[in-house]
Amino acid sequence: MPALFSRNRHKANRSRSQELLLLRDEIDQTMEKIDAARNHFEQAVDPTMIDCYIYEINAAQLRYQFLLRRFKAAESGFS
């Protein structure tokens, strides 16, 4: 029986590790979206586009915060 528990624990650790990698990738992509929206915002002159980029930045920042919380929770469950 101990070998079975060891295998299950190994699978769970691998699954968590994979989840952390996927979350890290999403966090990186979201940071790129924030940077892109900021760059567009700095170049925008039309008031409508300025508003659009403000919304994009805010949405991406909220997504970043959400993903960071999930990453930290998954990481703490990993140990």
Describe the structure.
The protein is mostly helical. It has one domain. 94% of the residues lie in helices and 0% in strands. The chain has 2 helices and no strands. The longest helix has 42 residues. The protein is rod-shaped and about 60 Å long. It starts with a helix and ends with a helix.
Shape: rod-shaped
Structural class: mainly alpha
Unreliable spans are none
Average predicted confidence as pLDDT: 88
Topology as a string of helices (H) and strands (E): HH
- Beta-strand proportion: under 5%
The termini sit apart by 23 Å
Largest sheet: none
Number of domains: 1
Estimated helix fraction: over 70%
Topology:
Blueprint: H1 2-43, H2 47-78
Helix pairs in contact: 1-2
List keywords for this structure.
single chain; 79 residues; mainly alpha; 94% helix; rod-shaped
What can be said about this structure in brief?
It is built from two helices and no strands.
